[in-house]
Amino acid sequence: MKVSISWLKRYVDIEEDPKTLADDLTMFGLNVEGIEDHRPDFTGVVFGKVIECGRHPGADKLSVCKVDAGGKEMLNIVCGAPNVRAGLNVAVAVNDAVLPGNFKIKKTKLRGEISEGMICSETELGIGSDPGGIIELDFEMEPGADLRERLGTDDVILDIEVTPNRPDQLSHFGIAREIAALYKRKLREPDFFPLETDDSFLVKVEDHLDCPRYSAVCVDNVNIADSPGWLQDLLVSAGIKPVNNIVDITNFVLMEMGHPLHAFDRDRIIGDTINVRRARHGEKLETLDEVERKLDNDILVIADDEMPIAVAGVMGGRESEIRTNTKRVILESAVFDPGAVRRSSHSLKMDTEASYRFEREADIGITVRALERACYLIEETGAGEPGRMITDRIEKKDSIEDIRIALRVRQVNRLMGTHLGSGELVELLERLGLFSELSGKDLIVSVPSFRRDVKAEVDLIEEVARVYGYENIGREEERSSTIFSRVSSLDRLREELSSFLCARGYAEVIDSSFMDPEDPETFEWRKDDVRSSPVRLLNPLSVSQSVLRTSLLPGMLRTIARNASVEQEGIRIFEMGKVFLPVGSGDGLPEEKQHLTACFARKNRPVQWIDKQREYDFLDMKGELETIFEWVGIDSSVTMERDKADEPDYTFNWLYKNELVGICGMIPRRVSNRYGISAPVYYFTVLAEAIHSLGVDEPAYSGLIQYPSVKRDLCVVASDRVRFSDIRNVVKKRAKHLEYIRLFDYYRGDNLGKGQRSYAFRLSFRSPDGTLEDKAVDKVIGRVLDGLRTELQVSLRME
Amino acid sequence: MSDDGIDRKVLEQIEREATDRLRNAGDLETLEELRINYLGRKGVLTLALRSIGQLPQEERPLIGSLINEIKGRFNSLFDEIKAGISAGISDEEPYPGDPSLPGRRMWTGGPHILHKVMKDVKEIFYRMGYSLAEGPEVELDYYNFEALNFPKDHPSRDTQDTFYINRDILLRTQTSPVQVRHMEKYDPPLRVISPGRVYRNETPDPSHASEFHQMEGLYVDRDVSLADLRNDVTYFIHSFFGRETNVRFRPHFFPFTEPSAEVDMTCFACSGDGCPICQKTGWIEIMGAGMVHPNVFKFAGYDPDSVTGFAFGLGIDRIAMLKYGVDDIRRFLANDIRFLSQFWRGSWVGAEK
Ligand SMILES: [Zn+2]
Questions:
Q1: What residues in B contact A578, CB-CB < 8 Å?
Q2: Is position B101 within any domain?
Q3: pTM, entire model
């Protein structure tokens, strides 16, 4: 809401400079977002006429003009504005002029052409923001006449952020009321023209919920003309273009008192009744903005006996608009249901000053007052003769009365942390026009109709806090809370995992929750894969962001591709983020799962002088995942399963206690190519939530064995039906005092025979009872070999 | 003991000799010769393994595995010495002439700056006694708006452009729905924070993103007051931005708190003198806060006469921008590693800085 300080001064004294006023209002809850100082900050700018305008011989974008600025000689001025042309009335800064920012204008040469001044834009004069070109003056003056008075106003405009709960602040009088409360000053009401109610003409309201109050008055002998200058100036300062006296007065009352009025040409209304009703299907109305609107039953209209003449609370119709020959006017001052106006303005896509206020609930108590104010101005300015009688249809008489709310002194202090007495509260509230009476220890506060946002005790407490000053609410009362924080072990696991990956050389990324609906197909996920049915948005920003991600991988591939130019060598990234699976619980919400997914591609280490780089491979990926699971503490129990149902190939599921805890795989080149990556990408996903809910054992201390270990290497041959994990399980089962088993060689080749493989591994033994003797170890080895032979048909390799 | 003399002693002798010769090899050629001598088709160890067949059945496994052990050790020593020779490193000179040559390196990585800020903020609140509460990002209209006292079809909803899944389900526009969810589940007193992602259907520009992160705070107890809110919020701002930062509370409107406040802190760029960043006010808005509205308590099943509480919400992206001087909020989710690595302690190997 833009308010003019000169306008505000009509209702309240303001001595503060604009900056102080803005700061004080901000701290009072009226956030001042901008201050526009319209007081002129320039000298030496005069009225001029462009007589000739030609191309600059040395620069395409410049023109050379002959300008009549009142002197004996025409001025030669070089100008770069696109809109400069012969015949234009312009503002000329002549030699020695000073523009805002202490910018002095001097005769100069521009690309070889003499320039004896400057033709100004609004920005250059600091009176507006029109970077597009120079000002085109739409009035005539003597060339050379000073423009200071004419272009600047002696006003400062405050741009105040009005929150949706405070429609009462959408007017100069409303803001003045706040200023009066802020500084404890008197508020001056404007003048009114007293009216009496006699229902002088018929108003029919179809549904009173749509229109709780409708007041209107007739004005005869209307004389359409321009408004007086003072009124036009004030309108312009509030950003409203003057039209004619009647329209200007309705707009003035709107900006002054905050209540929207509408003026109809009485002689263009058919019949003697004003109907407030829903539009009938198929009805049409050409509105003031010259657009023909198709109406339907959702839209509330004002209609005469035959057809709609206005969209209620939004905009009037063109047929009944005020013209130069209008003789009789009906002024409407009504209150429409916020929801009804909102529906109309949304479905017709029309946002007007009126609809903005009705949507925020207009003051039902003010309709007649607003007419009285308008009639005063009409009579005062000679725009017409207002009737003495008005029609005022109001469904519930008590809806305009004050509301009484109990305010407990104790509750005020409890919520604010203060020690205020009832007397102080009465005084603080009075400043806002909220009067109270004592009731025992507490207060009963009367809230007038212009403060319908104050509905309950807590709203009054906010008003008390605001006037008392948030900054005066003390910090002296330190309290010690009896609530201690509980550590979330899941959160800790997630944090530890990401620190671990960071330390292992992964760059953490955070990506959008949206993905492209094409992603599942690009990735070749099967149609029945849950990832192929993402949750769709009704109103996405774009098609490529129209579904929620079911996997972190598409985003990560895009990240890799995006960084390709920076990091061609190799990339290692991870993300901890949510995926959204359309499984859903009873309330219809999708299932949200937190995934930790890491990707790497290309070279395994930076290029350096000592060790050679090589391409990442599947075993790098598997090793990473093994390390993580070991580090988390679930190493030995994880089993890996090839997910045969999955596309593309090479995806493995990791199970722990029969639950999925990890996924790993390779994204083949044909898929990564589609994202602009020339290498295969390896990835793994850790399901931290699953691991957490399965429970991870705390590490346990088992003592240290002081005797030395004995190591033996074995090399065995197995058929390809046997896996190393089978061999390891047999060894673990059979080998007493086994400390570890470590594979150091794996081989498959023709000389072993078809389908045969050899494994060489080292066993380390250690006993708590003493140094192991060779003989004892030999015996264990014998048992192990026995077991391998009988259970797996695995035998010692002979050459 | 067999006729050929392939027994443990002979093998140990072979290994000692091989080790000595490997260690004395001064160049790659000698080294390769040794490998062929021992492991080639006619190499000493290869032949030894082949002759195992002539041993008595019971000796074969042990001698066989011993030979394999020796082969393994030979190979790893071979690799080690080969690496040393190629780099010019030896026991006598552990670095190859120039000690300023860089050492062996792996890739370096680091946390995302938003994650780091989120973690720092969480830790400050954990110290104050707050615990973690989490809620869904795809949320019911009920929790995101209705139970937070935003009536349907009310202009207060206009301030938060919303992505919808359907009429009742949306992407949460704020972390505040966790308040009601948490109060429904637990009895007072409670003191929680809830960080997470929120969504607004806005065309992104340098200061607006359609996806960003917030942290919600909620403290409900018997007599929690506005003064307590000021304490906690001020403590947080001092911890995160430094003790010299001034904090002010200014009245504002949020449907789910009453009284409501916006919290400003001294502009970091001009220390309060006024500059373009703070629009010449000297202050920067940092969070919204207020006393929990009685209606919200009612929705959550609490008795507003027996408890009071405060809530606050702050933008993680915003405070990250403020603290680190990031000029465009869209950078956070763009994942340009040149950007990300500027916030690591180390640097992205290979990135030009
Ligand atoms: Zn500043």
A1: 137, 197
A2: no
A3: 0.76
